[in-house]
Structures are given as C-alpha cells and as structure tokens.
User: Which sequence fits this backbone?
C-alpha cells in the first residue's frame, strides 16, 4: 500500500530511490566517503553501507562543520544520496546542497519530516520526492 | 518567508560590491530561508574552516570567489590547511596534492584572510569578546568561542564561513540569540576528588560523555571545583563537538555566562539532569578506544588535536626531559601545531627536546587531512577525544585513547602500554 508523507523541502527538487533508514545521527565528515558514498563511521548503525543514489534517512546531523564540504564533494563526484531526509533541519548539510547548486548548478533535495512520519518509512521502501516536499512511499513488502 | 533587507543588504545582493559578495549574499539569504529566519545581523569576526579539507570542490569554490574579486569585510582567521607548508616535501606529500593545497590556501589569502592556519585561532590571535556576534567554522573553535569566550556563533558549516566573512551578515538565529543559550541538559559531577580534575584525560572523556547524551543541546556542567586550563577546556569542547553537535557548554563558576547555576539556566528548569560519577568517566575513557590493545605493536602517536599550544609543548618537553629513552624507530610520533606555538616552542628550547626524542612536527595542518601517515599504520594512540573519534574513519586505524605520558612511554616501547589497564 502506498503512502503519502508531506515533508518540508529545505532544498527542493525531484528525486527517487530506495530508502536507507538509519536511527543514528551522522557527521558526514568522518562518516561518508565522498568518492564512493560508503558510510565510514564505524560507530554508526549503517557502517559499510553505500548510500550513493539512495534516499538516505537519518535523524539529524552531528559533529563536524566539514559535513557540508563532504556533501558538496559527494554531489560533484556523483556519489551523493539521491535525497536526504532528516527529522531535524541540519544547516550544515543544507548548506552543502546550496553551494553545489550555486557552483555546479546541480544539487539534491534535503527534506525534514516529523518523527511520526519518519517511523513509517522502512529500509528498502521506494521513495519518490517532488519539489513541494511530497514523498510517495511504496513499501518494499506488499 | 522573505528576509528583511537593509540598504546595505540590497547593495550586496545587487552586486554593488562585486560579484563575489553578491554570490555570498545569495547563499546567506538562501540559508536564512532554509532556517525560516527573516532578519540578518552583523558579525565582528569570522573563522574559515572551508580551507581545511582537500577536495576539488573546496578548491573550485574558493577560487571562484577569489577570482570574482572577493574581499573579507571583518577580521577573518583561517583553520588548518591540508598541507604542512614548510615540511611537505620531506614528509613525502605528492606534488599534485601539495600544489592543490597551496592553491586552496592562496585563494583564501587573496580574499584577505589571516593565515593563522589553525583549528585553535582562539589561542593564537586576539579572540572575540563576551557577547560579540561572530561567524566561526570548525566545531572545536565554535564551542570554545561560545562557551569559554562568551562570543556568539552558530555552528557554521564549511563554505558558509567565507560567505559570512565576505558580507559581514548572518541569519539572526540559534546561538546568536540570548534565549537560545540557556542550559538544557544539566550534568552534575558527583563523587570526584579534586585530583580527578587535575588529570588531563578527564576532559576529553567528559566531553565524549556529554556529547553522546546532550547531542545538540546546550550543556551545563556543575560541580567542577577546579580552574581548568585553556587546553583542558579545549579538549573538553573538541570531544563534545565530535560525539555530539554541542555548540555551547556552561561550567558553573567558570565560564562567563554561568556565574551561577540559575544564570546558566536563565532561571528555567533543565530538560534533563544527568549525574556523572567517576565510574561513568572510566567507562567514557574506555569508550574512546576502539580496542583494548595493551602489549600490541604501536604504529603512531598523534598529539595536538586540536593544535598543540605553547603550554602543551612545555608539558611534553618537561616530561621528555625526565624520560629515559627515545621514540621506537617503528613508531611515528606526530605533534600537530600552528606557526605561532611552533615559534614560541622554538624560542623556549622545547623543540630540541622533542626532536631528540624523535617527534615529527606537522605545522599548519592535521594528519587526518594531509597524507602524511605511513602506509600500514594500523594502531594509533592519542590523548585527544576528537582524534580518537575521527581517526578510525579518516585513517582506517584502531585507536587507543591515553594520557600524554602513556603515549610517550608506549612510543618508546613500540607497544601500547597503559598504566590503568592490564
């Protein structure tokens, strides 16, 4: 059964992809390899998972202010997530997406949704995002 | 929501001051919209972190703004760069990497930034004052400026920092506002004797613990009956801003916005109270290591995260003077610092002592960001909570957190030796 969720689009855009759902905050610096898209933070619940081209959900950002640089470089190298969805706005990641738009005229959507909606999205669900922040969720099972 | 623009803002966004500040202003306004903020404020200083990581996009962004004629409008210090400018050849850094890093630093110089090249600008350049509005990058510098100096900065991301410096304007938001600086999580230290506070490893461990629990909330620490040094506070903040996104901590009776507990809380009750005991601290110290490696072969020691101060050079030199033995030839012993502390350490005679032991100094940079460590570096010791947190992912190593003294003893032995672990 498909599901609609309305998010707030910090960085609006179209995207779709498989959901990777983490419950740990993440610092992109020290957390993601900007040349491969792999999660490199060993203390993270998705260590070793590649998020390139995926819709990446995690509660919020953490730690280093270099996260924006890592996201920018990931977008430049074509290994960024297709979109990022958090429960709390993360200015550091939003900024990385804005700079990419200004510098390369390409970026990824960054959305914020409620905790309740966050809990409705499961790993492997197929998500389709529109520029208004609407998220169409097609569950992996059923 | 649209942002209220002053006449100056209008001129900036129209390009009256050039294309670079126009682009920077557009980014500032887009961020204000993301944050849902309708007003901007002036800043008095900036600290640039966007010069620290060697990526093609960081270089392209900096050269774009510099090429458009960008000039900073407030005093602007700079974080470490991904290169030791004076030692890179003998460190074996590939030329291609070095030349890019030099281009990156030159782009920021061209925009009028001050070449402090350090993550501890507050220890080498006149720091901002109480209540001053500033725009700083680098998580350890941000938390130090907010907490210890009482200046006011958000946790600014790489590349926003230079936009703030080029325009002098930031969204009126977050840590810039008095009401957002009240304590939310109260940590009560209980059961510690004063000797515990004298131990340098106490601070990174406490930072590790409070960052994990507080995440991005404002922290109040009560019960620290001691006057911590600038370096101890630096270590505390750096760790807290690594395991969490802590931008501000108050220490009752120590930091400027916390003369009393009530003042730190702005007379409101805490959202959460956490008691911290010596047992909790021991657990946090263990949590900073990825393995219990006593007796295992050691590959490298990393000190100076954040950058070594002159006081830390003095401490290390005095310990080495009374120490029998040299660094084991298979162990790389790095001390990371900036030009100011390096110059003072040289004049103090500390550098000879360090060289005699076998210390490799890296200046202006960080071993996590410049490719200096040897291949096959697998086990690293550090006295830094921040380094312990990031080295495993950035260098692909196991890490052991230990005191400076244990780091030296282990480096001489060539194997991990921690006094408190069997």
Assistant:
């Amino acid at each position: 059964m498909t599901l609609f969720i309305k998010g707030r689009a910090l960085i609006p855009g179209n995207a779709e992809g498989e959901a990777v759902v983490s419950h740990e905050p993440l610092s992109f610096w020290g957390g993601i390899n900007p040349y491969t898209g792999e999660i490199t933070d060993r203390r993270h619940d998705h260590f070793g998972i590649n998020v390139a081209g995926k819709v990446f959900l995690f509660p919020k950002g953490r730690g280093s202010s270099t996260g924006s640089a890592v996201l920018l470089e990931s977008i430049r190298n074509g290994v960024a997530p297709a979109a990022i969805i958090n429960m709390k706005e993360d200015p550091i990641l939003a900024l990385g997406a804005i700079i990419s738009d200004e510098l390369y005229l390409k970026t990824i959507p960054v959305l914020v949704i409620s905790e309740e909606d966050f809990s409705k999205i499961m790993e492997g669900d197929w998500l389709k995002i529109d520029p208004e922040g609407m998220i169409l969720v097609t569950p992996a099972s059923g | 929501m649209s942002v209220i623009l002053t006449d100056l803002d209008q001129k900036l966004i129209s390009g009256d001051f050039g294309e670079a500040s126009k682009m920077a202003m557009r980014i500032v306004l887009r961020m204000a919209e993301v944050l849902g903020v309708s007003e901007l404020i002036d800043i008095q200083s900036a600290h640039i972190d966007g010069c620290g990581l060697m990526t093609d996009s960081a270089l392209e962004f900096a050269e774009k703004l510099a090429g458009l004629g960008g000039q900073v409008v407030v005093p602007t210090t700079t974080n470490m760069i991904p290169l030791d400018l004076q030692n890179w050849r003998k460190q074996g850094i590939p030329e291609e990497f070095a030349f890019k890093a030099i281009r990156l630093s030159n782009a920021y110089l061209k925009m009028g930034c001050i070449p402090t090249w350090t993550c501890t600008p507050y220890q080498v350049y006149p720091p901002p004052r109480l209540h001053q509005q500033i725009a700083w990058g680098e998580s350890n510098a941000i938390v130090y400026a907010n907490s210890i100096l009482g200046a006011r900065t958000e946790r600014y991301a790489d590349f926003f920092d230079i936009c703030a410096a080029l325009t002098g304007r930031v969204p009126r938001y977050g840590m810039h506002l008095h009401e957002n600086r009240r304590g939310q999580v109260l940590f009560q230290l209980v059961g510690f004797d004063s000797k515990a506070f004298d131990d340098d490893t106490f601070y990174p461990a406490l930072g590790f613990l409070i960052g994990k629990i507080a995440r991005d909330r404002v922290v109040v620490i009560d019960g620290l009956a001691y006057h911590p040094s600038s370096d101890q506070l630096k270590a505390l903040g750096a760790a807290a801003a690594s395991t969490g996104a802590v931008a501000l901590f108050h220490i009752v009776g120590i930091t400027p916005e916390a003369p009393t507990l009530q003042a730190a809380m702005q007379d409101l009750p805490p959202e959460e109270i956490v008691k911290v005991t010596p047992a909790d601290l021991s657990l946090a110290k263990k949590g900073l290591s990825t393995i219990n490696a006593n007796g295992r072969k050691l590959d490298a020691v990393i000190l100076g995260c954040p950058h070594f101060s002159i006081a830390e050079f003095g401490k290390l030199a005095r310990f080495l003077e009374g120490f029998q033995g040299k660094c084991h030839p298979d162990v790389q012993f790095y001390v990371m610092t900036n030009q100011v502390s390096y110059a003072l350490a040289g004049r103090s005679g500390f550098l000879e002592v360090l060289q005699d032991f076998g210390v490799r100094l890296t200046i202006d940079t960080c071993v996590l960001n410049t490719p200096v460590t040897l291949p096959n570096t697998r086990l690293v010791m550090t006295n830094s909570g921040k380094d312990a947190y990031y080295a495993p992912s950035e260098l692909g190593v196991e890490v052991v957190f230990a005191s400076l003294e244990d780091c030296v003893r282990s480096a001489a032995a060539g194997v991990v030796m921690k006094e408190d672990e069997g």
User: Anything to note?
Assistant: The two ends of chain A are 7 Å apart (CA to CA). Chain A has a mean pLDDT of 94. Chain A touches chain B through 39 residues (CB under 8 Å).
